[in-house]
Amino acid sequence: MLEVRLSFSYGRREVLKEVEFSAQKERLLAIIGPNGAGKSTLLKCMVGILKPRGYVKLDNTNLLKLKPRDRAKFITYVPQSSIPEFAFTIEEFVEMGAYATRGDIRDALERVGMWDRRKEFVTNLSGGEYQLVLIARALAQGSEVILLDEPTSHLDINHALLIMALLEELKREKIIISVMHDLNLALQYSDEIILLNMGKVEWKGNTKELNSEILERVYGVKARIIEVEGKPVVVAEV
What we know:
Elements: E1 2-10, E2 13-23, E3 29-32, H1 39-47, E4 53-58, E5 61-62, H2 68-71, E6 75-78, H3 90-97, H4 105-111, H5 127-141, E7 145-149, H6 157-170, E8 175-179, H7 183-189, E9 192-197, E10 200-206, H8 212-219, E11 223-228, E12 231-236
Parallel strand pairs: 3-8, 3-9, 6-7, 7-8
Antiparallel strand pairs: 1-2, 1-4, 4-5, 9-10, 11-12
Helix pairs in contact: 3-5, 4-5
């Protein structure tokens, strides 16, 4: 069980205000909310990139109190996909993620279907392929918790669905927490949702309990959640 309670400020500006929640295996947790809600900041605080007030406890161990190399054994962060600047091979790139923990690089790349391409350069990959390699690097780290910041952003539908199917598989063995911009993917694949708004938890709970009134209050637009072939879909009302 992962337990989180965090606050964070840039100078006098409070960005996160006692954001509190828990997460566990088998329950993919999606963090949603409008732009500027504090979603990416929350992940950076959880992994120790930023220095928040509060705690991130995994089985009662406060990960924020650990040294970065020791923390990496428990929690890892997959940032938003961006174009890599250096021509590392896929294998070299994933190996950098495994440095602190000496994880299994081959197993990580096989999990995302990229082992046979390990000698290719990351600079030649498509956005979707590069996102898979980023996830492989997180897997090679071998940590129990994986945080992902909008893993399907800017991807075509094929790669977006591939990424979500992979996360659905990984949640059986790891705690998976993902910031998600696409509300429909969040509704269809997550088990729990946290809705952030202006640095505070506006709503949290079982995904099936999220309703259109809550979305309208936070996003400021009229919308309905309907079922299409048994799956929830957000539809804007004109």
